[in-house]
What does this fold into?
Amino acid sequence: MERLKIKVPFGAQVDYFVKWTLISVVLGVCGGVVGGAFGHGIRLAAECFQNHSWLLYLLPVSGVIIVFLYRAAGQEKNKGTNMVLVAISSDEKMSLVTGPLIFAGTVLTHLTGGSAGREGAALQIGGSLGTLIGKVLRLDEKDGKVAVMCGMSACFGALFGTPLAAGIFSLEVVSIGIMYYAALVPCLFASFIGAGVSGTLGLSGEHFTIVQIPEFGVVPAIITVFLGSLCAVLSIGFCLLLHQAEHWYRHFFRNPYLRILAASVILILLTTALGSRIYNGSSVALIEEALEGRVRYEAFLLKMLFTAVTLGAGYKGGEIVPTLCVGAAFGCIVGTLLGFSPSLCAACGMAALFAGVTNCPISSLFIAFEMCGFEAMPYFAIAIAVSFTLSGYYGLYGSQKFVYSKVKTEFINRKANEYDE
It folds into this structure.
């Protein structure tokens, strides 16, 4: 009997591994340095804002500068993080000026009290960096897309200190239902190297402590399912608010300078009326308060409002940290009302809302583990799964594609926020 011969192209795997190990090292180091510099810039800007109350009244100035910079660079139609996703899923190319522009714009936003995050900006910086290095190394079109993903992972990992989540997020966020496994090794290597480099530069990651984790059982599981369901509804509302805010600004103020000036006035009035600055900037302090079990009942709504006013008008920054803040505050409130570990509910709400707005359940689970530890694993897993399933086809990123249905084993290939399946 003739023996079956199977040819295994092992050499191709070795070539791939060696090639992308070297490229991911370059991208990881560069992403760690740039991400570290960006993180320190945001930290210094936030400290300046907290220490000098008069900076709030420079919001109109920073807004005008941001609009001017983008228009001068010919990037007034820049789609932000959506542009990075499009560069991976289509033939469109990222502009190399995206990185410097989002770097400067986000620092200016935080310096004067705009309500925005930083990780979404890191994705744009990383994507721009990956594009640049891909051109320098003369990578072909397909490898260039992997380089963009590597850059995203490197800067995300460097800035947030969650390398596992950062490495997987770039694979998961572009097309829901399909992961780009060809980029698994490069993205993970780049994210861990980026986090290591930024840590060496003195930039520490975000880590939170859950005060109380009750023993898992039937009743806690039911409460977690209920919380995940509520977070799914909230994620839809948050996505709609962010998208509608931009639409409203463009409807009432056709001129970008007028849009951003109107937002600056609204933010100044809101901050002054509340007498608190916890909703300005990234609001990480709000997450800490929620994990300690003490936030105001309206906190999650106010953070949503501040973020929509800021980002909808054209100020720069990310949506990820605001999402975590809103989820943590909401979870804490639900836990308080139900009498069930507000701290644990805050952590679950944070992860569940992230899953709902990004449609990335695996990344959400990893980010929960890296930020809050593994002890609450069953709670995280259930809350994330429920929120992802019930949040439908809404998302922060309009360029995100749902390749497969959330409720059937079928191909649908539709974009986020197309409301009818």
Summary: DSSP finds 16 helices and three strands in the chain. The longest strand covers residues 411-415. The longest helix spans residues 10-51.
